[in-house]
Amino acid sequence: MNPNKRPDNMERITTPALANAFIDEQVALVREQVGKNKVLLALSGGVDSSVVAALLIKAIGKQLICVHVNHGLMRKGESEQVIDVFGKELDANLIYIDASDRFLDLLAGVAEPERKRKIIGGEFIKVFDEEAKKLTDVHFLAQGTIYPDILESDGVKAHHNVGGLPEDMKFELVEPVKLLYKDEVRVVGEALGLPHAMVYRQPFPGPGLGVRCLGAITRDRLGALREADAILREEFDKCGLAEKVWQYFIAVPDFKSVGVKDGKRYEGWPAIIRAVNTTDAMSATIEEIPYDILHKITDRITAEVDGINRVLLDLTPKPVGTIEWE
Ligand code: XMP
Questions:
Q1: I need a labelling partner for 124 at 20 to 30 A (CA). Which of 107, 211, 229, 264 fits?
Q2: How far apart are CA 250 and CA 248, in angstroms?
Q3: What would the pLDDT profile of 63-117 be if each residue is shown by its tens digit?
Q4: Is the model's pLDDT at 161 over the cut of 90?
């Protein structure tokens, strides 16, 4: 039997009862696989790695070592949520690394999108590798590989941001959700008690806000983007759009326009709203956000975010526009 092939008769996990049965089965399998050994996991706070973390905490408790690397390109409150949920509530063995300065220093002056992605992916591996080397006697690496990753790649999670582990990292993999589809991972996550917002969160690219702070990233513009994005998410939460829209965010380009604030000339960046619906991210349509909500978001962003003086709406479907701007 091919361990990377989902059996034809495997029932789709749609209910808490099915999720609990899956969890019990995986807890036993993981315990059998790793025994008393330690297991390392890169915990980004995304759905897949979070569900794997919660599952492994249930199975092996403190034998799991979670490493959360904050690359400085997280959305507002994300690293804090990882620390609260995993470090505090679930009492996980969590190593938190604030590597923001390392990433932002390397990215200074780099405007080309693919180079930015490579720097972020490469540095991520480096930081993670340095942590792994500090830990002795760890032979297992857990990954949030899910079934679409297997169908789309050679079986090892190969999303374009992380790009694979260094050759000299010899680990045996622990991939408890590798035969599950995304919707099943979410049902399992809820059954494990993870917060709804974490389990149903919108997709967020590995390079994070790095591909939304367009061109060469500066700390001030990145800060403005993070605040504007937090306002957009807050307003979408309040009016129910967060439950409905597939992906929504702000991008901030690296040019300014003239404006007026408090009777004075005020040069600022524009904040661009993007809100799209899709099933597979290959093509996407735009969400028709009601004008009263757009006005509210515009008022709040221009009043509350330093450096932003205009709010624009991206009306472009994919194709022609990709979902991200870079
Ligand atoms: P595009 O921009 O290609 O995005 O229409 C399609 C989906 O992929 C996400 N995306 C990424 N995810 N690393 C990721 O992990 C990346 O470099 C990356 N670029 C785009 C994007 O957010 C959308 O959901």
A1: 229
A2: 7
A3: 999 999 999 999 999 999 999 999 999 999 999 999 999 999 999 999 999 999 9
A4: no
The Cα–Cα gap between 300 and 231 comes to 7
CATH number (domain holding residue 153): 3.40.50.620
- The per-residue pLDDT for range 14-39, each reduced to its tens digit, is 999 999 999 999 999 999 999 999 99
Helices 16-34/182-191 angle, 10° precision: 90
Atom 14 of ligand 1: nearest residue by CA position: 205
Task: Identify residue 318 by its one-letter amino acid code.
Answer: K
Residues 283 and 162 in one domain: no
For the segment 199-211, what is each residue's pLDDT rounded down to a tens digit? Answer: 999 999 999 999 9
Whether ligand 1 lies within 6 angstroms of the CB of 160 is answered as yes
Distance CA(83)–CA(246), nearest Å, equals 26
Residues 24 and 151 in one domain: yes
| Interatomic CA distance for residues 30 and 56, integer angstroms | 8
Q: Is the CB of 161 under 6 A from ligand 1?
A: yes
Q: Which of helix, strand or coil describes residue 198?
A: helix
For residue 43, pLDDT over 70 is answered with yes
Taking residues 203-226, report their average pLDDT. Answer: 98
Atom 4 (ligand 1) nearest CA = 323
Is the beta carbon of 203 within 6 A of some atom in ligand 1? yes
The domain total for the chain is 2
> In terms of C-beta distances under 8 Å and separation of at least 24 residues, what long-range contacts does 288-292 make, across chains too?
289/241, 289/313, 290/239
Mutating to test ligand 1, I would choose from 324, 325, 326 the residue with most ligand atoms within 8 A of its C-beta, which is 324
In a domain? residue 70: yes
**Domain co-membership, 127 together with 171:** yes
Same-domain pairing of 67 and 178: yes
Q: Is 326 part of any domain?
A: no
pTM, to two decimals: 0.93
The atom of ligand 1 lying closest to the CA of 206 is 15
